[in-house]
Amino acid sequence: MADAMSGYLVPIAIVAVAIVLVLGLVNMMRGGDMNTSQKLMRWRVILQFVAIVVIMATIWVMGQRP
User: Fold this and answer.
1) Under a CB-based contact definition with an 8 Å cutoff, are residues 6 and 65 in contact?
2) Under 8 Å between Cβ of 59 and 9
3) What is the distance between the alpha carbons of residues 26 and 64, in angstroms, rounded to a whole number?
4) What is the spatial distance between Cα 5 and Cα 59, in angstroms, rounded to a whole number?
5) Helices 10-29 and 34-63 sit at what angle, rounded to 10 degrees?
6) What's residue 66's pLDDT?
7) For the segment 12-22, what is each residue's pLDDT rounded down to a tens digit?
8) How many CA atoms does the CB half-sphere of 14 hold within 13 Å?
């Protein structure tokens, strides 16, 4: 289980945060809608929380191995 988490879930979570971050930066550089910027910022914060939970769970599972 730890292999699947560290091999798939952690990279997916990190890539999701990076994608939303880049989308937000592109929107800001183009002078896009502020509501869109706020939505992307909220999604980034939520995804960062999820990524931290996944990373911490992976570390915990890896520590449970005999």
Assistant:
1) no
2) no
3) 41
4) 9
5) 160
6) 67
7) 999 999 999 99
8) 8
31: left (phi over 0), alpha (psi -120 to 50) or beta: left
The position carrying tokens 């994608």 is: 19
pLDDT bin (cut points 50, 70, 90) of residue 2 is low
- Which pairs from 20-29 meet CB under 8 Å and 24+ separation? 20/44, 20/47
User: Helix, strand, or coil here: 32?
Assistant: coil
Q: Return the structure tokens found at 47.
A: 């995804």
Q: By C-alpha distance, which of 2, 47, 3 is closest to 22?
A: 47
